[in-house]
Amino acid sequence: MHGTFLNKLHTYDINPKFSKRAAYFSMEFAVDQSLKIYSGGLGFLAGSHLRSAYDLKQNLIGIGILWKYGYYDQVWNQDHYMEAKFVKKEYSFLEDTGIIFPITIHDTKVNVKAYFLPPDQFGTAPLFLLSTDIPENDYISRTITHKLYDSNLAAKIAQSIVLGVGGAKLLDIIGAEPEVYHMNEGHALPLVFYLYSKYRSEEAVRNRMVFTTHTPELAGNEEHSLALLEEMSFLHCIPLDEVKRIAKISGDTLNYTLTALRLSKIANGVSEIHSKVSQSMWQGNEGVCPIIHITNAQNRKFWKDKILDEALNTNNDELLVKRKKELKQELFKEVADQTGKIFDPNVLTLVWARRFAGYKRAQLLLHNYEKFLGLISRKHEPIQVIWAGKPYPEDKLGIDIFNYINHTVEKFDRCAILTGHEMKLSAMLKKGSDVWLNNPIPPREASGTSGMTASMNASINFSIPDGWFPEFAKHGINSFVINSQQTDSWVQRDDQDNKELLRVLEDEIIPTYYRDPNRWTTIMKQAMCDVYPQFDSDRMATEYYQKLYHA
Description:
Largest sheet: 9 strands, mixed
């Protein structure tokens, strides 16, 4: 009925190297600032993947959800504490496909409508976005696609069904059944039960499924009781004993990641370290597929500043330094607008910008408060510090850290914390920073791609060796490394990591920036050279075909 839609999917001629049709299921995509259907790193990765698929002319289709209220709008309340606002979003550039079809959630018919983002709109592979917020549904069903990562458990499970079952069913309806189904994290897991119901064969499912895992600790991998999942229609009406057999479950709970690993032909971790962590976590379990590593990456063509890139390619150091200062001034206009503080483009500027979560330790720089006071009060060789990022709206610890930093630094002229960390601000921060600070608790950072786009824009990474960073870092040559100490004591570890962070900052980074500007420029240029092509998403999208889709 809707098969004619297949003819307009790709506006480019498919490259024969990438002719195998693949569908890429992700709960979020960051393809443009105007399309607010992403929260952070997972979405940034997925957006860069679709951009590279477009540039490489791959036969890839994206499947996501049209979140009515997006993630959330980050604002201050009247007492200057962070608040999450949920505001309805509208998009005139999405095409209404006219396709509405039913799926089953909680033994109830729920209608799903498909919207389409044409490839040429933002330079991406074709992307379908699913919505239940339509008049054909009752109110509860309409709310399923309202909020990305809804905290309500039933809503979260329903969202997975919309993504996995809804996405697969849509592809069948339009005649675009792929040879490969690629789950970006385990959110779309009901997809495997839909495929099993369709083919009645574990092997048929496994031959079509590939999986990217992102979570490097057991507690972070979603798991629910089989009884609840059956009640929610997550299992697509497959009898429980059969689900237990095909997913090799011995107890009464289903782990999303483990089930995905058992019903895929191959999976990947998102950095060398993360793949090893994932192997040690999962490969002792029966029936788990091979877990290789394909390191995450970002789309350089989209994220790079063209003038910085021109300066690098023409070896024009004067232009590079001049442009970097201009980009700092652009960022500092945003700082002034949000905080009323005037930053100096001649002062060394550190940025910490990513999701606020406990393990990411946004507050580590403040851990020794007396030392921090001395650092930001320096009259000779001063520094400026900017924080930005969105915690999950229900993450009390993340929000508390955000508010703690805000109320701690608001009295200091050379410190700022910014709201609204979305694609536009993210780009400004990467282009306008001198140093990109990252200090998670290892090995909990699966990849951490923000540092890649920072390096693309002559911001020097200053990081703990976790995620992607050990594959890139050469201390004092293209970056600066914080050697983290492994200890069972959180307090002791934070003490040691803070001391090492301050030592490298005070003994190496600050002196180099102010006393040896030629060396600083050399480090910037080396970072820009070393990040490409290894951490450009063209490499990643190519490896997905070579190592996953053709496995």
